[in-house]
Every structure is written in C-alpha cells, then in structure tokens.
Amino acid sequence: MLNDDLYRQEILEHYRSPQNYGKLRNYTLKAEKINELCGDEITLRLLISPRLKGPASTRRQGEGVRGGWIKDVKFSGAGCALSIASASLFTESLKGKSFTQVTKITQAQVIKKLGIKVGPTRKKCVLLVFETLQTILKNDKRKHSKKTKRYT
User: Fold this and answer.
1) What is the enclosing helix (H) or strand (E) of 44?
2) Positive or negative: CA dihedral 83, 88, 91, 92
3) HEC profile for 1-22?
4) Which residue has the higher pLDDT, 78 or 15?
5) Domain boundaries in the chain?
6) Which residues form the NIF system FeS cluster assembly NifU N-terminal domain (predicted)?
7) For 95-111, how does the pLDDT look when each residue is reduced to its tens digit (9 = 90+)?
8) Is-above-0.90 flag for pTM?
C-alpha cells in the first residue's frame, strides 16, 4: 500500500511539473495523437543526432535518422494526470537512446514506468505517448524506404 501511495505521488508530481514539456524549435521528427475516448492529446517532437560512433566509412548511405540517437525530446498537449505523467516519464527515458533502441520499446515497459496497476480503461491514456512515438517510427520508416527503394 505504501508503494502505491509513493507512485501516486510521483504521478501527481509529473502531472503538475512534467519533464520535457514544451516545444522544440528545431526538431527532426514530429507526430500528434488524440485519444478518441477521452480527448487527451499529445504532440511529440524528437531531435535526432547523427550516429557519432565508428568511422564514417562504416555508415550506410541514406542511413539518416535510423542510425542516429535522440539528442532531445519534448511533448506538448493536454490530458489527464496519467497521460501527462506517462509522457513525462517516457520522454525522460528516451533521451540518449539510439533510434534502434527506441524501436524495441514495448507497451509493457511504458506501463511499468508508472509503477502502478493500470486498468483497461486507462491504458489508452498511459500509452498515448507510446502510440505517438509509433506514428513517428512508422512515418520515418515509410520515408526511409521510399528513399532507398530500388527499381529494376
């Protein structure tokens, strides 16, 4: 019971003073998502830096953001305490991760970050930021595949 109270307090702190809330002026990727059930909305902006590790000769041509890492991330929008707190915690965990690492994040990991049990009706609130990231990844994948598509 004490742990639940501590986690609830942390959620309220992230709701009142969310980390990474605001807008990036210079961003590489952006997506917006609305939870149709409750009206929560999130806009997520990522600043992707090119991969710095390894010699330039080992980089693939056209690699773009897929070989980079997240230098900065911001979110904006409005929503319930769970939605905003989840976005705050989630964006903190994205900083410094490679684009490849980000593609491997699961819904369960996002929910676990809150430290409380989330019922089925509130899952969409908690996962709104994750779904926004998935939109970014899908859009970038389509953009990347169009650039590298070969016609024979």
Assistant:
1) strand 41-49
2) negative
3) CHHHHHHHHHHHHHHHCCCCEC
4) 78
5) 2-52+64-144
6) 7-144
7) 999 988 999 999 999 99
8) no
